[in-house]
Each structure stands twice: as structure tokens, then as C-alpha cells.
Design goal:
The protein folds into three domains: 25-184, Rossmann fold; 199-297; 320-522 and 541-709, no CATH class. The protein is built from 28 helices and eleven strands. Helix content is 62%, strand content 8%. It starts with 24 loop residues before the first strand and ends in a 5-residue tail after the last helix. It has helices at 37-45, 89-100, 115-128, 139-144, 151-158, 173-184, 199-216, 222-231, 239-248, 252-267, 272-294, 304-313, 319-362, 367-405, 408-421, 428-437, 439-445, 452-461, 471-482, 490-518, 540-575, 583-597, 602-610, 618-627, 638-647, 652-663, 669-679, 683-709; strands spanning 25-31, 49-53, 60-68, 71-77, 105-111, 132-137, 147-149, 162-164, 295-297, 577-578, 581-582. It is α/β, with parallel strands linked by helices and 714 residues long. α3 links the parallel β5 and β6 (132-137). The strands form three sheets. It has a seven-stranded mixed sheet with strand order 2-3-4-1-5-6-8, sandwiched between helices. The chain has a two-stranded antiparallel ribbon with strand order 7-9. α7 (199-216) runs antiparallel to α10 and α18 runs antiparallel to α20 (490-518).
């Protein structure tokens, strides 16, 4: 096997100079997950970026721009992927974009601490195009672990520019920009490495390349396309490759050459699967050979500390208990920390309400319009913001901190076996964690699951994780009816009660996931490579920007859009009378008998129904109903809340059933809207609505009737 440098063939995507200077110079950023690719992207583009979805995909799309030597570069952040063999939507998007030719230069970001694995992707990219720069990132981590890389030797072997960086500290980024610029301007002469697959495969490629080159007019690398013709199941390929296959298979000459090549492989005992294995093995062997030549280890066990920590955090004995303890700590910090800013926001909005009311009265608004805009629209909006913003602003940074630290993949590792038994994807554990902050954000996080079937299961069941909008209800009821009378242990018992509800939610998630996988979403459980990245020092500035801008404000904006019209509807239901009763009271009367079977009352069910836009407003609606106030209200203390509930016939059973239904009922309007956007259809939001609500009804009915049957309560 020839492992030496061979010039990349001239395919029309060679080392030609970009058109510019008036147009953007398009550069794509590729790399494995956890290589710091996003950090490189953010460091280069700063705030000059935006995100969205790739056309027809729920795979995240980010692009930004930067200027170097008076030339503007547009940077496309491709999905993090380990290969380009298109076994997932991420891989297909990355492969299709690279072979489309839209980006004239590809920057592959590699992790300096595990270069061997990252070179696999680099060699695959270099098969599509030779316009490549290798960015060896995380050099600071490599130095800490006693790893030294001969970057100049690596560049000589690969035949392309190799730049070492530590993007978190900004080191090497100017040199990276300079290399990109020099490649764009044609100032660098390169001889990219070409992998040789042995005499037999090379002979087959030589049979196909002339005809492919003629048909595609050198728009796509003919060698790479010849390999895909031989090793791919052409009937199952999608995206750009399917378009290329449909075009070239119409050629009689190419069909004959392909048949001849396949016959040569068959005679050698090599079918499509064994050829793919041979190609992958050759690339891996090449990567190992290269890394051995440029790597130097100063320590025999360079990641020993990480392994010692993992023996504890991922052990069968301590892994789950430590995870629950850490989760409890995050919740405690979120709940305790959110109280003061939430109260401050409420006080501020109350202060502004007086001026808003005076302004409307000054305009001469009629009484009904005044109530609609002040007690309906304004109070619902400000209530949602006051209750949602502080917990999200605390939870999401904590969540992002654990993500940057490298702990979240360990959670997926600990829970993988349970999800496997439930016929679900192990990455669903990560989407559940995001759901604790907001279920809409959890639904968006399901994009990391490659399998469409398992992604839908994760989306449907994410609502069984209580979001921050449901925590106030759960905490209040646990404090009053379960931990009440515990004295100084009340807070501790209430926390344990909420933790028990969370564990119940996880059990229900696993159970419903298994049920869905055996009924409407049948299929085989997919396997996936779960990488445990090294523990890293989190970047506080990056955490704040990512968590507040990308997550908190994104979710809050959707909640506000849904809550605005909801406030108007709620006010109308409470103030529009049919006979002697309001619409809200009529609804509670109709739902009363059914609610009683579930251990609830009609007003509780009406509060959940009217609280569809946001879970935060369920308790205020319930208080408004009990007090016949005609507007959303808030009591000053838990004692006053307890007295109001007891006066309206509440018992401990009512509280328990309300907590169960709070955990298991239809998603909020923001989450339903997000599910629709992620699945591009209203079918799955409706399925989610029915499945989650049916779960709550069944569980409440079983609990209420069992307690009454046993005579524990009358």
C-alpha cells in the first residue's frame, strides 16, 4: 500500500483562486463533536452570526462572517460528525455541503488530544476536495496531558496547511485566518495526501473515473464518486449523492464499466459490505500510521486523572446516586436563586402596571377594554416573564456549565442501559436534562438523535420531565400538603418529594418510550458512539452568552408569543357571563364529575386547560377561580394558599393527584408549537397531546380510586 503523497487530481475544484474581492469567500468548518469547533467558529465570527435549520432538515445550521485583509469570509459551521458515510442526518448534511462545491475551502477542526480518530474525517474530506486546512485545536489540553505534536511534520505528510490553535484563549486564530486567506488567494502550493486502497480497488477506480469525469464535467471529484458507486447501496442513498447517482446511471458506458468493476471485486470475494469495511479499515490504518509519526507522549498515562474521576461518576454503585444528588443541587440553586429576582420582576411589573393603567384611562378606554388589556394581556405576559425568566436564567447556565465541564455525556452513559431496555436512544437522557429547564428546549435538543423514530419517541416523552414552569406548583403543593407540619425539616422533605416526582417522571418516560416503540413507532434500536470527552475548565463568558441568548431568550420569546393571546382568552372566560355563571364557572361545573373521578375538582381541570399557553399561570388561574376575582391574583404566603385550598375542599389526595396531573398532562403551547416546527406537521403535536394527557388521566384515576377503595380518605 502506497502511503506517500500523491497530487490531488484536477477536478475543477482544485486550487483555483476565489472570485472576490466583491463577494464573500465561503469557508466551511467541519470536525468531530467535542473538538472545540464551535469555539473556533464563535472566536472567528464573534457576534456576526445566526443559526437556523438546513433546508428540509432538523439539523442545526450556523453561519457567520469575519474580515481579514479587507476580504470578507463567510464561515459555515457544519454539523459535528465522525465520518461522511452518511449514516445519520448530520453526516449527510456535512457530506452534501462539502461535495456541493459552494464552500471553496474546508477547515477541518481536530482535537489535539485524540488526533488519530480525527484524522479519519480529514482523510474522507480530502477524498471529496483538496481545498482543506487542518486546524489542530485544544493544544492547551494536549500540553496539560503531556502530548506533543509535530505540526510541521504533519503538514508535510498530509500535504496541506496545518495550524495549531487553542481557540478558547484565542491562540493561533490569526495564523489560521492567514492560511485561509493564502489558500483563497492561491498563494500556497499544496500536494494533498491521497489514500491508496490497494491494487484491486485502484484498478476498479481507474475503470470508472474517466466516464464519471466526463458526465459530471469535473464538478465533483471523480475518484470519490467512483468509490461511492462501488461501496454504497445506491437505492438507499439520499441527498446530493442520490442526485448524482440518478444522473450518472443513465450512461451506458459507465454502467458497463461499473458492471466490469463489480465483477472484478466479486471474483476477489469482495461484496459491497466487505468493500466498505476495507475502505474504512484502510482509512483508520492510515490515520494510525500518521498519528504515530507526529505524536510524542511525555506521560505514560496522560488521561489518568479523567479515568480516576470516571471510575466514580460512571460506576454502577455511585453513578446514579451522584447524578441524582447533583441534579438535586442544581434544582435547589435554581429554586432558591430564582425567588428574589422573580419577586423583584413582579414588583417592577406591578409598578409599571399603574402607569399602563393610567395611560389607558387617559385615552378613555372603556371598562371592558381596560380589563382586557390590563388584567388580561398585561398580567398574563408579566406573570409568565416573572416566573419563567429567573429560573431559566439560572438553570440554563448551570446546565451549560455541566455541558462544558464534560459531565453530560456521563449522564447519558449512566442511563444508556435503561433507555436500551426501553427500546429508546441513549442520547434521550441529554434531551431530558434540557427539558428540566424548558420542554420546548428539550424538544429542540432531540436533534442530536440521528434515528427519526427514536427522535420522535424522545420528543413525545420529553413532557414527562417537569419544566421550570411546573416546579412552582409542585414545590408549593409538596410544602403545604406533604411536608406540612415537619417543622425545620419541611424544606428537606419538600425537596425529597419533588425529587420523587422527578424520578417518577423518568420511570414514566422509560415506560411510555417502550410502549411507543412496540406500537405506533416500531423499529430496531439504533447503536451510537458515545464519546466521553475529557474534563475541561468551563468558560464562564461563553456559558453566559450561550445559555442566555441561545436558550433562555429563545424559549422565553416563544412563551411570550403564546401567552399574549392566552391572557385575553382567560380574562374573557372569567368575565363573560352566561346566565349567573361565567364561562370559567360553567366549564368547572361541567368538568366537575369527571374531575372527581381523578381526585381533582372542575376548577383544577379548567386551570390546566386555560393554562395551556404556559404552565406558570395554572396556579394564578386556580386562585382567580376560587376567589371569583375575574383577574389573575397571587397570595402573599403558602399559609394563605393552604387556607384557600382547604376552604375549597382540598385534601392530601387532591394535592397528590394535582401533582401527578401536573407531571403528566398535555405540553404547554410553546412546546406544542416547537414540536410542530421540528416535525413539520401537526400530527406529532396532537399525538404528544393525547399520549401525555391519557397518561395523567389513567394515573390520577388509579391513585384516587385506590385510596378511596382502601378507605384512606372519604
Amino acid at each position: 500500500m502506497n502511503l506517500g503523497n500523491q497530487p490531488f487530481p484536477n477536478t475543477g475544484q482544485g486550487w483555483s483562486q476565489f472570485n472576490a474581492p466583491d463577494e464573500d469567500l465561503v469557508v466551511a468548518l467541519a470536525g468531530n463533536p467535542n473538538t472545540g469547533k464551535s469555539t473556533v467558529f464563535n472566536s472567528l465570527t464573534g457576534l456576526k452570526q445566526h443559526t437556523g435549520n438546513w433546508p428540509g432538515k432538523t439539523v442545526i445550521h450556523a453561519q457567520g462572517h469575519y474580515t481579514f485583509k479587507q476580504h470578507r469570509f463567510r464561515l459555515i459551521d457544519l454539523p459535528g460528525t465522525y465520518s461522511l458515510f452518511a449514516n445519520s442526518a448530520d453526516e449527510e448534511v456535512a457530506r452534501d455541503y462539502i461535495c456541493s462545491g459552494e464552500a471553496k475551502l474546508i477547515v477541518v477542526v481536530a482535537d489535539a488530544t485524540c488526533l488519530e480518530r480525527n484524522l479519519n474525517l480529514l482523510l474522507q474530506v480530502m477524498e471529496i476536495t483538496g481545498n482543506v486546512v487542518l486546524c489542530v485545536n485544544l493544544l492547551d489540553e494536549a500540553r496539560r496531558k503531556g502530548i506533543k505534536i509535530d505540526l510541521s511534520g504533519l503538514a508535510a505528510i498530509l500535504g496541506i496547511p496545518v495550524i495549531g490553535t487553542s481557540a478558547r484563549d484565542g491562540l493561533g486564530l490569526e495564523e489560521l485566518k492567514r492560511s485561509i486567506y493564502q489558500m483563497a488567494m492561491g498563494e500556497l502550493t499544496t500536494t494533498p495526501l491521497r489514500v491508496s486502497y490497494g491494487h484491486l480497488v485502484e484498478e476498479c477506480l481507474q475503470l470508472l473515473e474517466p466516464y464519471i469525469n466526463k458526465l459530471t464535467k469535473a464538478q465533483v471529484n471523480s475518484r470519490w464518486l467512483a468509490l461511492r458507486l462501488l461501496d454504497s447501496d445506491r437505492s438507499k442513498e439520499g441527498g446530493r449523492l442520490a442526485e448524482l447517482f440518478s444522473g450518472i446511471e443513465e450512461s451506458r458506458e459507465l454502467s458497463e464499466a461499473l458492471e466490469q468493476a463489480e465483477q472484478l471485486l466479486f471474483q476477489a470475494g469482495m461484496d459491497r459490505d466487505s468493500l466498505r469495511d476495507h475502505i474504512v479499515t484502510t482509512i483508520v490504518t492510515q490515520s494510525e500510521s500518521i498519528s504515530q509519526k507526529v505524536y510524542t507522549y511525555k506521560k505514560n498515562n496522560y488521561n489518568g486523572m479523567d479515568r480516576k474521576i470516571d471510575r466514580i461518576l460512571t460506576s454502577k454503585t455511585f453513578g446514579i446516586p451522584l447524578m441524582l444528588a447533583l441534579l438535586s443541587l442544581v434544582f435547589w440553586i435554581t429554586i432558591q436563586g430564582a425567588n428574589y429576582p422573580s419577586q423583584a420582576l413582579t414588583a417592577g411589573f406591578t409598578y409599571l402596571e399603574a402607569y399602563w393603567a393610567k395611560f389607558l384611562l387617559y385615552l378613555g378606554c372603556p371598562e371592558w377594554l381596560y380589563g382586557l388589556l390590563v388584567h388580561g394581556l398585561y398580567r398574563s405576559l408579566t406573570w409568565v416573564i416573572s416566573v419563567m425568566l429567573p429560573p431559566m436564567a439560572i438553570f440554563f447556565p448551570l446546565f451549560t456549565f455541566l455541558e462544558d465541564l464534560g459531565y453530560l455525556p456521563r449522564i447519558a452513559f449512566n442511563l444508556d442501559q435503561y433507555f436500551k431496555k426501553a427500546c429508546a436512544h441513549g442520547k434521550q437522557a441529554l434531551t431530558m436534562c434540557m427539558g428540566f429547564g424548558c420542554n420546548a428546549a428539550g424538544v429542540i435538543a432531540c436533534r442530536i438523535i440521528e434515528s427519526p423514530r427514536e427522535r420522535l419517541i424522545a420528543i413525545i416523552t420529553n413532557n414527562y420531565v417537569p419544566c421550570n414552569g411546573r416546579f412552582p406548583t409542585l414545590i408549593a403543593l409538596a410544602s403545604i400538603f406533604i411536608a406540612g407540619g415537619m417543622g425545620r425539616y419541611q424544606s428537606f422533605v419538600a425537596s425529597l418529594s419533588v425529587l420523587a416526582i422527578i424520578v417518577l417522571g423518568v420511570v414514566i418516560t422509560l415506560s411510555i418510550s417502550r410502549l411507543l416503540s412496540k406500537t405506533i413507532l416500531q423499529g430496531l434500536t439504533s447503536s451510537f458512539a458515545l464519546e466521553l470527552p475529557p474534563y475541561r475548565k468551563p468558560q464562564l463568558g461563553r456559558i453566559i452568552v450561550r445559555s442566555l441568548y441561545d436558550r433562555t431568550l429563545f424559549v422565553l420569546s416563544r412563551a411570550v408569543i403564546v401567552a399574549a393571546p392566552a391572557g385575553i382568552i382567560i380574562w374573557l372566560c372569567a368575565n363573560y357571563y352566561v346566565g349567573e355563571l361565567s364561562i370559567l364557572q360553567h366549564g368547572a361545573k361541567i368538568l366537575g364529575p369527571f374531575a372527581n373521578l381523578l381526585g381533582l375538582d372542575g376548577y383544577i381541570l379548567m386551570a390546566f386547560i386555560l393554562g395551556l399557553p404556559a404552565n406558570e399561570i395554572v396556579i394564578p388561574i386556580l386562585l382567580m377561580s376560587y376567589m371569583s376575582a375575574g383577574q389573575m391574583v397571587e397570595l402573599d404566603s403558602l399559609q394563605a394558599l393552604q387556607e384557600l385550598f382547604l376552604a375549597n375542599g382540598w385534601t392530601w389526595l387532591t394535592a397528590v393527584c394535582t401533582m401527578i396531573f401536573c407531571l403528566n398532562h398535555f405540553p404547554c403551547g410553546t412546546t406544542l408549537l416547537t414540536i410542530k416546527k421540528e416535525t413539520q406537521t401537526w400530527k406529532w403535536p396532537m399525538v404528544t397531546f393525547l399520549v401525555t394527557t391519557a397518561t395523567g388521566i389513567v394515573l390520577c384515576f388509579v391513585v384516587a380510586q385506590s385510596v378511596r377503595l382502601l378507605g384512606l380518605i372519604i
